């Protein structure tokens, strides 16, 4: 059935990426969630960064009982499209399923104060506005140089300010606070990046943490409540960008349910 | 007259020489009774004396008295250094104290030897009654009995880590005066014990009666905690002080030394310990409390356990908390406080252990009872006290901020929403040149425009610059016509002359070779370049005025030479350099 769908799509001139997406949708509908997630991860690996791709990936992981991976992909979708209502709903639903129901760490206070207006805008929108205001600024400057007209100076100043504002916003969108999601139950967070270090606290699957340092396979994480410590990278799902590949193969993760028992973290 | 002067000189002379003299407080002393040896050293540059050694003679090398005096006579400064040492003789009979030596003014000087008579111990002179408040005297009082030291422990047999109360009493007859600060004291050596305080602490003085006489008793106390089982000796307490007494002979000062007997203490091991024993030995009370009984999930509360009582505070270990599911327990913070008390034996300590407990789940967190086990040496029993259990109400973590990235959706459905469809064709995100171009092109274009406009304005406003700018082009054009011209030398002359005039903004017809030479000189043109062009100019002038026409080959060479010279002049002289002249004539 998947082969037929692919052939039809090929006849219709769809791109290979579209075909992969549609094949993943078909697999999902047939209940083969592992294959669906695997196909969608291939798109992500090919740098197809689309909110719909991330959303559907999240759904597939949820069906596979991979709560952490599902939450991470919904977060990815919302970073690209903050007004994606379905992603918001599903994210909230999955957060409700977690044990901790921990908040996500907020951006720094200065950023929240300065860029309070940009959180509802998609990155693409901000990039476009920034580019347009940049071009307009130089155009007005050029006009003012070649043909001085009253009012062009103040227009240039306003455009310049607009450019700065959206430029900073674009930079913030391109460099979001690193976020990760605990990918399994009872993720140990220790005082130092050492398996022998004392346990500081534990994250439950789906808990979201900010990551401010990564070193030698360890990440220093901070919860919204301020708890901080080190944990292994392979216990986390990094929201990104960059969108890292998961540390498991979704297609063969049938025994994942068994593996995700509470592992004794020494 | 002269004889008297010599005597005086001889008498005076020894005063400036270094000398050492020794005196004793008594030439007749009792065996084992301390007496004072005083050494006096006189000289300009004196050093400490070297005391003699003799069997049977014990001199304490630590001076009990120190004094330095300086006398200035003219340019001479003489020091008199006095040292007083306590000494005892341990055998009866006569003894000769050897000379005491000292380095004075670079020379080793020595004192005379001293002869002492040592007697066996005899009764000291009777002390008279000093105060009417004294009770009825019972016989004469010796100095031995007037000052006494006593050391005792309250417990000679104790458990390991249990306290040993050491008390030091100084008894001083009220009829004599004894300085509060002893000359010397050495506290008992307490090896094998942990001492609080490190030195015995004075806890006060009182008047007591003994043998019908009043004594002022000064008491010091120290708590000792044995660190291991076994038999230990608490060493002697040595005390030396000065007593002033009034006897039949009058007022006298006596240096008195007293020493107590060592004390044996037996330390027995603790009875078999229960598993929960914390190591605390003493009399304690235990309690624990929570700082907050309602917290938000992920926020810690503190369980503070306090142990209060008398005992070695360092032996008070932390209570072991029971397992608390669904919570993280951090290692405790420890704090030790002492309830101030003058008497170390009455000192009370409070040690607290504060545990941060972070509930991981919302709801109700039950903390089982906390136990504390200690050993009380008073009844030789282990005691276990309990506090708790405790309950902490854990609230849910608050909802997310709706205006930051993700608003809190209802999430109250029973399942997630279905898949979504793609909106249009999917494409990978590729590194695009568009954004860098958008960023870079506008400022580059603007900069280019500004430069262009600036140049154009210059062309419009600066004639000198324009002339110089176009000089080479015009000259090239003329040079191309030279060979085909009917009068090539005139044409060449014209081209070269106009080029120089345009270059330096002078009037062309007025530019002769001589003018050109002066112009080149004033403009500091490279001599090689100038010479080449001048040569061609002169050739042209000769051809014109003297009829000295060159051959075709020579003409071609002149044209090429002129072109090369112009190029060189163009390269070394940038367009727009203001020439020296203002009216087109070169000033000679």
Characteristic key phrases:
A: 266 residues; 5-stranded antiparallel beta sheet; two-stranded antiparallel sheet; 10 helices; 50% helix; 13% strand; B: 588 residues; 23% helix
Notes on the structure:
- The complex is a heterodimer of chains A (266) and B (588).
- Chain A has helices at 2-11, 16-29, 33-45, 51-63, 67-80, 85-97, 109-114, 123-146, 152-174, 256-259, and strands spanning 179-182, 187-190, 199-203, 208-215, 218-222, 228-232, 236-238.
- Chain A is an alpha+beta fold and 266 residues long.
- In chain A, strands 6-5-4-1-7 form a five-stranded antiparallel beta sheet. Chain A has a two-stranded antiparallel ribbon with strand order 2-3.
- In chain A, a hairpin with an 8-residue loop joins strand 2 (187-190) and strand 3 (199-203).
- In chain A, 43% of the residues are buried.
- With 588 residues, chain B is α+β, with helices and mostly antiparallel strands.
- In chain B, 23% of the residues lie in helices and 38% in strands.
- Chain B is built from eight helices and 31 strands.
- In chain B, the strands form eight sheets. In chain B, strands 22, 24, 25, 26, 27, 29 and 30 form a seven-stranded mixed beta sheet that branches.
- In chain B, strand 26 and strand 27 (348-359) form a beta hairpin.
- The relative contact order of chain B is 0.07.
- At the A-B interface, helix 2, helix 4, helix 5, helix 6 and helix 8 of A face helix 3 of B.
Give a short summary of the structure.
Chain A is of the alpha+beta class.
How far apart are the first and last residues' alpha carbons of chain B, in Å? 112 Å
- Poorly predicted ranges of chain B (pLDDT <50, ≥5 residues)? 1-15, 123-137, 399-411, 576-588
The portion of residues assigned to helices of chain B is 10-25%
Q: What overall form of chain A do the CA principal axes indicate?
A: globular
Span from first to last CA of chain A?
47 Å
Proportion of beta-strand residues of chain A = 5-15%
Task: List SSEs of chain A in N-to-C order.
Answer: HHHHHHHHHEEEEEEEH
Assembly status: heterodimer
Helix content of chain A: 40-55%
Q: Main sheet of chain A? A: 5 strands, antiparallel
